[in-house]
Specification:
Length: 77
């Protein structure tokens, strides 16, 4: 768990921390009613937090639907 899992610039996250973040994201999604196999849109710049959110969505049993971070509201709607 103490080995590096993610590196983004100067920020590093170990596997234990990534696991804990993914658990918190999954629990929050389930608490808020996200059902297994439900799509969850994800839009943001590449980062350690983005990776943890992606992992949490999958851990909740949902489907991660990444959206392009440069897209406008009109392009997404």
């Amino acid at each position: 768990p103490s080995h590096t899992a993610l590196v983004c610039g100067d920020l590093r996250m170990d596997w234990g921390t990534l696991d804990a973040w993914a658990d918190r994201v999954a629990a929050a999604l389930q608490r808020d009613g996200v059902a297994p196999r439900q799509a969850v849109a994800l839009c943001g710049a590449n980062s350690v937090a983005y990776a943890a959110l992606f992992a949490g969505i999958l851990r909740a049993g949902a489907v991660a639907a990444p959206l392009p971070s440069g897209a406008t509201a009109a392009q997404l709607g």
